[in-house]
Amino acid sequence: MRTFDLTPLYRSTVGFDRMANLMDRVMAADTATQSYPPYNIEKMSDDAYRITIAAAGFGEADLSVESLEGQLVVIGKKADKNADNAARVLHRGIAERGFERRFHLADHVKVTGAVMENGLLHIDLIREVPEALKPRTIQIATGAGEKAIEATAS
User: Fold this and answer.
1) Do residues 105 and 70 lie in contact, with contact meaning Cβ atoms separated by under 8 Å?
2) Which of 3.30.530.20, 2.60.120.200, 2.60.40.790, 3.30.200.20 would CATH assign to domain 36-129?
3) Each residue of 67-122: pLDDT tens digit?
4) pTM here?
5) d(Cα 78, Cα 86) in Å, to the nearest integer?
6) Cis bond leading into 37, ω under 30°?
7) Whose CA is closest to 55, among 113, 116, 102, 104?
8) Quick one: three-class SS letters along 14-27?
9) Which of these, 118, 120, 122, lies nearest to 51 by C-alpha position?
10) 51, 43 contact by CB (below 8 A)
């Protein structure tokens, strides 16, 4: 078990509290790591990502995908089957238990769509950085067009 005390980081920095909170959440979630359902995170291009969740046995009506406050929440809830069907099953190797999987999204990452295909739930994400935050090139003026600054004595 790993534990880190990030209190000194809070005391000696300004403006990095969000990063420290994210590290706290990741460390806390790491101790209770879930393994169901399995998933992949793929980088499709520079600003496009895809999360693929293996949701065998779940239909579109059984799954819920929500994006709220910088988190992507995927919930799978299977409707209860009647007792007669459970009596006929001799071995249950396909897990159909409910799940809730949370992913923390970076700034400006938005969900563009979700598709269920062959038992895999594909969730497409894109990072859209606003124009105001993108790097821009500043033109350098030549010395010929320089204006002199005059000082006035009071």
Assistant:
1) yes
2) 2.60.40.790
3) 988 889 999 998 766 555 657 778 877 777 889 999 988 888 999 999 999 989 99
4) 0.64
5) 14
6) yes
7) 116
8) CCCHHHHHHHHHHH
9) 122
10) no
| Structure-block tokens of residue 108 | 């400006």
Burial class (CB in 10 A: 0-12, 13-18, 19+), 132: exposed
User: Which residue has 């190797």 as its token pair?
Assistant: 93
- The pair of structure tokens assigned to 14 is 């300004």
Q: Pull the structure tokens for residue 26.
A: 């990741």
Q: Is beta strand 48-54 parallel, antiparallel or unpaired with respect to 120-127?
A: antiparallel
For residue 45, give both structure tokens.
């291009």
pLDDT tier at 57, thresholds 50, 70, 90: confident
For residue 114, the surrounding DSSP H or E stretch is strand 109-117
